[in-house]
Amino acid sequence: MDIDKRIENLLEQLDPITLEEMSSIRLMNRTDKKFVTNKVQLAALLELAQGKYYAQFNAGSRIASYRTTYWDTEDHHFYMDHHNGRAPRQKVRVRTYMDSGVTFLEVKTKNNHGRTKKKRVEVPGQGQIEEQQEFLMERVNKQVSDIHETVQNNFHRITLVNYAKTERLTIDFDVSFHNYETGKDIGTGELVIIELKRDGNVFSPVLDMLRQLRIKPSGFSKYCIGSVLTNQSLKQNLFKPKLVKIGRLVGSPLQ
Asked: Is the pLDDT of residue 199 over 90?
């Protein structure tokens, strides 16, 4: 059995939770932590999660499809803020939930304490943000004409919720990137990005599972990694060690 089929079979064995049930889970004092691994380790994690986690079920599937396009200035202001470790820092993106076709323009802000807040407004589709001048000026002090599409990604996502409903786990894989500036496309092979979102520092069953599998915390920005992989002209010193680690995880360097 190939690894993708194994992951699907393990997901089918998890109790489902609907989007409506998910909406009742409000993490008021949320903390986020990311982990990077591969599909073989993901299958092992899903085995350990049996009987402890729900899997989000929507549109007939436990695996959702996403498309996200990041917008930046000509001098890559948002990318450089992240590369240089500036805080607070922001990112502008347009995300489409492919299964429903709903699209949002989103601004993510990470503050000096590592907390991330997100503001969003629904838009007609990818690339259609012309009517959102006020939204952008208020949140990033930029006009639509100040920014342009830079990097797009497509990926699949699994969302797990613990039985106590005090945390959500998003698991992203099959991530691919397209760069609007260079025209370059690249995939990430077996790479898996896990993000744990929980209510404060409440007990988290998955943290013990991740320790058991020796999956350690690791920051990961899809925008920044996608930019580095598809645009060699960008300053990228900060991200080189992470690219080496990713190459080891997936069994070959990403190029």
From this structure: no
> Rounded to whole angstroms, how far apart are CA atoms 217 and 214?
10
The residue among 145, 232, 107, 140 whose CA lies nearest residue 181 is 232
* Closest C-alpha to 153, from 121, 190, 178: 178
Which carries the bigger pLDDT value, residue 143 or residue 31? Answer: 143
Neighbours of 31 (CB within 10 A): 17
Which of 223, 184, 231, 254 has its CA nearest to residue 95?
A: 223
95: left (phi over 0), alpha (psi -120 to 50) or beta: beta
Alpha carbon distance 238, 77 (integer Å) = 16
Please state the separation of Cα 134 from the chain's center in Å. 26
Beta bridge partners of 178: 152, 185
- What does the pLDDT look like over 130-170, one tens digit per residue? 999 999 999 999 999 999 999 999 999 999 999 988 888 99
Q: Which residues contact 2 (CB under 8 A, 6 or more apart)?
A: none
Q: How far apart are CA 72 and CA 82, in angstroms?
A: 12
Q: With beta carbons less than 8 A apart as the criterion, state whether 119 and 139 touch.
A: yes
In angstroms, what is the C-alpha Rg of the chain? 18
Pairing of strands 30-38, 64-72: unpaired
